[in-house]
Write a structure and sequence with these properties.
heterodimer; A: mainly beta; seven-stranded mixed beta sheet; four-stranded antiparallel beta sheet; about 0% helix; about 50% strand; globular; B: mainly beta; six-stranded mixed beta sheet
Chain lengths: ~110, ~120
């Protein structure tokens, strides 16, 4: 079945540094990918829609300069958390519309900023 | 904007019994999709069941079924013969019919299965 691979699964970084999270569709092409954020014991909140070959669409309240999204190919989208701070610590999940399900989800990335 | 509400933060059920999780939503659209997703401790999102709004028949997937009440904007999930593996967070989600495949999630219900 269709698989979305997300890497890394967890990362710890120091405050002020940047972290890149990759999301790949392994056996299907995804012109669109969605990035969600999930705080502990909370729901998934859509951060942005990544569009292949064009600019991402950010949800209200999400800082586009802080959360840089690049969708350079039909199988890869990246989310870069720039100048990370402890309040950016969260669980980030990517997803893509696919052939066998409305959305295929990656396994998520747990980001801890110290 | 569409909103999805799950009024039960936590539910518990005895193993082999039946439990119903509630979900209501708000939309001005007539055509849309509704979903239930399961998120176990691994945090992988797993699709449980989907319902197209234009279908009157309630969706069923093995032990999982929904009660879709379009006029009331209600979409509850019934789990029959509950099993220990059903323990997880359950999220109700809404999607527009055309053009935008993003999902709007409810706040979730944590389901505990009592052996």
């Amino acid at each position: 079945g269709a698989v979305v691979s997300q890497h890394p699964s967890w990362v710890i970084c120091k405050s002020g540094t940047s972290v890149k999270i990759e999301c790949r569709s392994l056996d299907f092409q995804a012109t669109t990918m969605f990035w969600y954020r999930q705080f502990p014991k909370q729901s998934l909140m859509l951060m942005a829609t990544s569009n292949e070959g064009s600019k991402a669409t950010y949800e209200q309240g999400v800082e586009k300069d802080k959360f840089l999204i690049n969708h350079a190919s039909l199988t890869l989208s990246t989310l870069t958390v720039t100048s990370a701070h402890p309040e950016d610590s969260s669980f980030y999940i990517c997803s893509a519309p696919g052939p066998t399900a409305p959305l295929h989800f990656g396994n998520g990335t747990r980001l801890t900023v110290t | 904007a569409q909103t999805v509400t799950q009024s039960q933060p936590e539910m518990s059920v005895q193993e082999a019994e039946t439990v119903t999780l509630s979900c209501t939503y708000d939309t001005s659209e007539s055509d849309y999709y509704l979903f239930w997703y399961k998120q176990p401790p691994s945090r992988q999102m797993i699709l449980v069941i989907r319902q197209e709004a234009y279908k009157q028949q309630n969706a069923t997937e093995n032990r999982f079924s929904v009660n879709f009440q379009k006029a009331a904007k209600s979409f509850s999930l019934k789990i029959s013969d509950s099993q220990l593996g059903d323990a997880a967070m359950y999220f109700c989600a809404y999607r527009e019919d055309f053009g935008n495949e993003k999902l709007t999630f409810g706040t979730g219900t944590r389901l505990t299965i009592i052996p």
